[in-house]
């Protein structure tokens, strides 16, 4: 179980409070859709949960192990178990999909592996297995710069899994994608939760969150206003977070 208690996040020298004491908990295997208007704090929440941003206050624990107490960012041990998927994932455009999966995220790979792409044979097989699972085996040796948006997102997901992520925070992962590609990406994320027990929290449009997610968080002005499981939001609930 992952527990969040009184998460606070401020910017501009603590003059602007972006997240206002968010408290929640969620289980392994859940896929949670975060909805809310622009500026409600969705991206900041995802980055905080994925340990990509320091907290100004609050506590964070996984299965009883405390990661953050009273603020901070959390140790590298836990950051390595988290993946943060951006709208446009950072891939090396001149390297193949396989190489991108193997050598890790831009800025987080050792200098030697970035330059040479050297990997162990078991890493290679693990990467090929993940690419095959997500329908990308035929793209393994295609340079990332030539992949479609949906393919790039799935490569980023494969990369996260190969490097040990158990928790994935996805910031509008299907923005700009055609409906078929968006469906493929969201089905991929959903299957990670239902079949592999991963945990996904994703900022999504309300109609996609209702269709693909087991749970919906409604964020408004930095506060968690709604936490709904197993159903669509009512019209009144949508109005409460300014989505109508």
Summarize the structure.
With 244 residues, the chain is an alpha/beta fold. The chain has helices at residues 42-49, 76-79, 97-103, 111-116, 121-133, 149-162, 179-196, 206-212, 235-240; strands at 2-11, 16-26, 31-35, 57-62, 65-69, 82-85, 167-171, 199-203, 215-220, 223-229.
Description of the molecule:
By secondary structure, the protein is an alpha/beta fold. It is built from nine helices and ten strands. It has helices spanning 42-49, 76-79, 97-103, 111-116, 121-133, 149-162, 179-196, 206-212, 235-240; strands at residues 2-11, 16-26, 31-35, 57-62, 65-69, 82-85, 167-171, 199-203, 215-220, 223-229. A six-stranded mixed β-sheet has the order 6-7-8-3-9-10, sandwiched between helices. Strand 1 (2-11) and strand 2 (16-26) form a beta hairpin.
């Amino acid at each position: 179980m992952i527990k969040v208690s009184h998460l606070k996040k401020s910017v501009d020298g603590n003059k602007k409070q972006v997240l206002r004491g968010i408290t929640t908990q969620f289980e392994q295997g859940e896929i949670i859709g975060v909805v809310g208007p622009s500026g409600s704090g969705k991206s900041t929440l995802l980055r905080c949960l994925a340990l990509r941003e320091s907290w100004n206050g609050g506590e964070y624990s996984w299965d009883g192990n405390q990661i953050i107490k009273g603020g901070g960012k959390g140790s590298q041990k836990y950051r390595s178990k988290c993946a943060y998927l951006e709208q446009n994932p950072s891939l090396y455009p001149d390297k193949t999909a396989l190489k991108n999966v193997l050598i890790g995220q831009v800025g987080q790979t050792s200098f030697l592996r970035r330059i040479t792409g050297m990997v162990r044979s078991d890493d290679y097989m693990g990467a090929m297995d993940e690419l095959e699972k997500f329908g990308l085996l035929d793209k393994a040796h295609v340079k990332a710069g030539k992949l479609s948006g949906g393919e790039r997102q799935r490569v980023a997901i494969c990369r996260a899994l190969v490097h040990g992520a158990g928790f994935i925070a996805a910031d509008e992962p299907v923005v700009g994608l055609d409906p078929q590609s968006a469906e493929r990406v969201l089905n991929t994320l959903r299957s990670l939760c239902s079949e592999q027990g991963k945990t996904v929290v994703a900022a999504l449009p309300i109609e996609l969150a209702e269709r693909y997610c087991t749970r919906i968080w409604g964020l408004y002005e930095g506060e968690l206003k709604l936490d709904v499981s197993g159903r669509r939001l009512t019209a009144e609930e949508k109005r409460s977070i300014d989505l109508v």
